[in-house]
Amino acid sequence: MNKAIPLSFLDLAPVPEGKPIAEGVIQTVEIAKQAEKTGLNRYWMAEHHNMPGIASAATSVLLSHIGSQTKSIRIGSGGVMLPNHAPLIIAEQFGTLQALYGDRIDLGLGRAPGTDGATFQALRRQMKDAERFPQDVQELMYFLGTDTDSSPVQAFPGAKSQVPIWILGSSLFGATLAAHLGLPYVFASHFSPQMLTQAISTYREQFKPSVYLDKPYVMLAANLLLADDDATAEYHFTSTQQSFVRLRRGETGQIPKPTHDMDSVWSQSEKMMVDNALSVSFVGSVATVKPKLAAFMATHQPDEMIITANIYDQAARVRSLELTTELNLFTLH
Predict the structure, then answer these.
(1) Which of 14, 40, 73, 125 is deepest in the core (most CB within 10 A)?
(2) Cα distance between residue 307 and residue 10, in whole Å
(3) For 161, phi and psi rounded to 5 degrees?
(4) What secondary structure does DSSP assign to 192-252, as a single string?
(5) How many angstroms separate the Cα of 298 from the Cα of each of 5, 32, 246, 264, 295?
(6) Which residues pair with 255 in a beta bridge?
(7) Which parts of the chain have pLDDT scores under 70?
């Protein structure tokens, strides 16, 4: 039998097709409130740029708003793409969040730019910035730590805040870095599951206890969309599937409306690509999803799960969160 573990939510602040960005933000606040009401452990947001269907580009700004609209759920980044930023700036931003909302704040860090090459240049960054990721993580840890009193440069706010840092990844690079720094590790299995088993094994085997963590802590990401019946869940999940098709084609746009006919949308090769990328997805009724999710958890033994549902229909997202209480696989507050 699986041990109950914490459940968290990852949001991209989706902007539904035909709706203004402001509507996407309003809906995101509603989801954060529902996640808190349901009893989820964390509510995280991901940094993406130049994507009209995602409203979380200014991650720390939107997190501050989410913090003001919630009371107890942990809030944070899943993640901030550190190559886009100077570590001092992120220390100041998340130090400010910690000053506002106390120990509710998490700081998940990723190495990818979260955008295309042209936008990366518009952010005034260079590809070599990603190569400095390990050094930048340690610099950020320093700015948030307790040993900066004698430093000529300090983060105000940020210094001594000790905001918890997580390493995000989908390869052995992030797993190895998290292990060597003694930090918790999040694997992006919700869209890049190919190296899941190898990465978490590497992390657990190479983990070095630290002042932050005495033993490995693995969070796994999954797409989870629950509905009252399988057909309804599968219908709404076509929003996510269409988004991945568009991404492969290099097309931009807001989150598409669901369809009853995906075969008219994708080619066979695109279907194979999407099925592979989204293979860690649990879509259907509680009765259908529960045994599949339990088997996944038994195989990989995560310490925590973080779920996402990047779809068009807001009512379906809310209903999915409501139904998570019936899975009985998670520790809910």
Answers:
(1) 14
(2) 6
(3) -75, -30
(4) --TTHHHHHHHHHHH----SS-SS--EEEEEEEEE-SSHHHHHHHHHHHHHHHHHHHHT--
(5) 12, 28, 34, 37, 5
(6) 16
(7) 1-2, 113-115, 127
Cβ atoms within 10 Å, residue 164:
19
> Could you give the 3-state DSSP secondary structure of residue 55?
coil
**pLDDT digit string (tens) for 269-309?**
999 999 999 999 999 999 999 999 999 999 999 999 999 99
Indicate the pTM of the whole model: 0.96
Asked whether the beta carbons of 47 and 57 are under 8 A apart, the reply is yes
Closest to 168 measured CA to CA, from 45, 294, 23: 45
- Alpha helices (H) in the chain, listed in sequence order: 21-38, 59-69, 87-101, 117-122, 128-131, 133-144, 172-181, 196-206, 230-249, 268-277, 286-300, 314-323
For 310-324, how does the pLDDT look when each residue is reduced to its tens digit (9 = 90+)?
999 999 999 999 999
* pLDDT of res. 227: 98
Nearest to 294 by CA among 222, 241, 231: 222
Alpha carbons 170 and 151: distance in angstroms, whole number: 34
CA atoms within 13 A on the CB side of 227: 19
* Amino acid 122: pLDDT: 83
CB 193 within 8 A of CB 279: yes
Find where tokens 């068009």 sit. Answer: 312
